[in-house]
Amino acid sequence: MKLEQATGGEVTRRELLFGAGKCALGAAGFTALASVVPGMVSNAHALGGTTEKWPWPYQKLDPATTAEIAYKEWYRVFCGAAVISAVFGQLREKVGDPYKSFPIDAFIFLEGGTSGWGTICGANAGANIVTNLIIGPRISGTDDGMLMGSEIMQWYSTTALPRYVPKEPKIKADLPQTVSNSPLCHLSVGKWMKAANKELASPERKDRCARLTADVTAQLVTHLNDWKDGKYKTKGIIPAAGYGIQTQHNCTECHGSNVPSPPKAKKT
Predict the structure, then answer these.
(1) Which residue range forms the structural domain that includes residue 241?
(2) Number of structural domains, the chain?
(3) DSSP letter at 28?
(4) Across-strand partners of 120?
(5) Distance CA 206, CA 208 (A)
(6) What is the pTM of this model?
(7) How far is the C-alpha of 123 from the C-alpha of 210, rounded, in Å?
(8) Domain for residue 35, yes or no?
(9) pLDDT for 14-73, tens place per residue?
(10) Which of 14, 43, 73, 195 has the most crowded CB, counting CB atoms within 10 A?
């Protein structure tokens, strides 16, 4: 059976019934679904009512304590989510919402330079999420979460890491430090693997990334504390302002003969 649509086209009886079903779901289906998942409606309102108020309140945190949390969280949710968890997890207790409504574990995809693609290091990405939610957009002077995030990426690129030594390290051996000259996971991890002669799946490489995540988190909280005290003056830059296009100033680190290659896997 076919019926004429208001537009002059034809619609089958099956299509008409399917369309009616969708309308019914819009009115009653959500209510039914909400009854299956208690609190769904109220939680949806809560999320919309709290997480959209930006920037978010901040209370000072201890960098050493936060770094230790980040180190341990790396072994649960890896680099990016570990940075977020170390900061937002404490602020859930100190502040409450909107941090309680933030889905920290959803950012596990930042692992390996975003879903294993070796792009921006997850620790850098996690730090940028934190700075932009807490500081927000530029209001005046240095009130710019993007510039603080950029400064952390600059620091990451030029600092010999990891520096952090956990209280209870998973790996007790001394781990070499390397300078990435890039905020990218591929270069950062690749250069360290070459220096340490360790494979990607090695316990040493994993602990290196956990310690580096702690380093980034401590640096992040140090900046945020200074910002809270009104002492922070950003050194962050936006590279596009100097080059006329989004870029890094160190292209040869990833293009040419300097591309890091992993050590050969040991035969078992």
Answers:
(1) 63-253
(2) 1
(3) I
(4) 184
(5) 5
(6) 0.77
(7) 10
(8) no
(9) 443 334 343 333 444 433 333 333 333 334 344 445 567 779 999 999 999 999 999 999
(10) 73
Q: Which residues of 52-64 are buried (b: 16+ CB within 10 A; e: fewer)?
A: eeeebebeebebe
Percent share of the chain, pLDDT over 70:
71
Q: What CA–CA distances, in Å, run from 49 to 70, 94, 132, 140, 235?
A: 29, 19, 19, 26, 34
184, amino acid identity: L
In a domain, 20, yes or no: no
Minimum mean pLDDT among 8-12, 93-97, 130-134, 184-188: which range? Answer: 8-12
Q: Could you give the CA distance from residue 110 to residue 78 in angstroms, rounded to a whole number? A: 8
DSSP 178: B
For the record, the structure tokens of 245 come out as 């296009």
Q: How far apart are CA 173 and CA 160, in angstroms?
A: 17
Task: Tell me the C-alpha distance between 175 and 162, whole Å.
Answer: 8
Is the CB of residue 100 less than 8 Å from the CB of residue 92?
Answer: yes
CA distances from 54 to 46, 98, 133, 134, 191 (A): 15, 10, 7, 8, 38
Per the CB < 8 A criterion, the answer to whether 140 and 148 are in contact is no
Give residue 109's identity as a one-letter amino acid code.
F
Q: Where are the alpha helices (DSSP H) in the chain?
A: 13-24, 30-36, 40-50, 63-94, 122-134, 145-158, 185-196, 203-228, 240-243
CA–chain centroid gap for 129, Å, is: 6
Cα gap 60→264, rounded to integer Å: 45
CA distances from 205 to 101, 127, 202 (A): 33, 21, 5
Specify if 26 maps to a domain: no
Neighbours of 131 (CB within 10 A): 26
